[in-house]
Amino acid sequence: RGLGDVYKRQIFAHSFSIIHYTMIEKQWYKVGGYSFCITVDSIPNLLETLTNCHPFRISEEEAKSTDETIFNLAIKESIQKPIFTGKFIVQFEGEGIYLDLYESTNGEQIFAISMQKRSIALLKLEQNSPKASLILAAGLNHQQQTFAINNTLMLLYAIHTACKNALLIHASVIACKNHGYIFLGKSGTGKSTHSQLWLQHIEQSYLLNDDNPVIRLHNNEVIVYGTPWSGKTPCYRNESMPLGGIVRLSQYPENKIERLTGAAAYAAIAPSASAIRWKQEYAEGLHSTLSKIVSHIGIYHLQCRPDKEAALLCYETISK
Q1: Taken in order 172, 285, 87, 123, is the CA torsion positive or negative?
Q2: Per-residue model confidence as pLDDT tens digits over 207-227
Q3: Under 8 Å CB-to-CB from 251, ≥6 apart: which residues?
Q4: pTM above 0.85, yes or no
Q5: SS3 label, residue 116
Q6: Which long-range contacts (CB under 8 A, 24 or more apart) does 121-129 make?
Q7: Could you tell me which of 253, 95, 225, 90 has the C-alpha nearest to residue 157?
Q8: Contact criterion met (CB below 8 Å) for 160 and 70
């Protein structure tokens, strides 16, 4: 009887293992007019924890009616430490994140994702395909999982829209009277501070996104979109509107603003665009999109103090 019980327990454990590791969740999302799909293998309720993405959920039928599904991301958890070989290409460094790009012998692109210098995930991009897979290290907490997933989604979005007249940009966006106004600049310049001044002193203003909006040229009009990625400010509005202007900020003892043209306008916004430039087609697509935006939208440089007068000067100038 003892051997029989052991055998039955082994069968039950084996069956449970199969059920657990074949559990699949799938969800479509739409950001900036483009849809993408996330599939999760055997990590219960992971998609429910991505609350920043919830306002952008769509059905499979709606996804098929959008311009196109730009990528499909499969997420699973590693049972053991992932092993890969490849040629190191470049490292990208941001706020608490490191992305090391490698290329395998068959042309597959692989990103090693680190959070505060701890390796937490591998992202694999199939060559000439919208398919990608994210392998999360075992034992990650909720913060580490969502950190890896959101940075992966931003990276994939930037890659797959690089040649589609769309741009993921590091900026803060205020919506006011049915138009969006983008404020950008180096970290610490005061983008969020200037947005707050608009909220306090400009009527009918509200925050659309505080870190990574999407700009898209669509039907010969430049549109700004809210996204699931808003930095430290939880502002995830699934809204879009015509872009009224782009303002590069710099701190200064007095308030003054000037409109930029040509190369100066291009140079004002290029540093804030997602840096997808390691392949020629990405770089050319990014250049084309930036050039079209500059030719359609007013680009300004605001040298300012963090005060009410700066917000009023900016609004009165660019809203015209």
Answers
A1: positive
A2: 999 999 999 998 889 999 999
A3: 189, 190, 303, 304, 305, 306
A4: yes
A5: coil
A6: 121/148, 121/152, 122/78, 122/82, 122/84, 123/152, 123/155, 125/156, 125/159
A7: 225
A8: yes
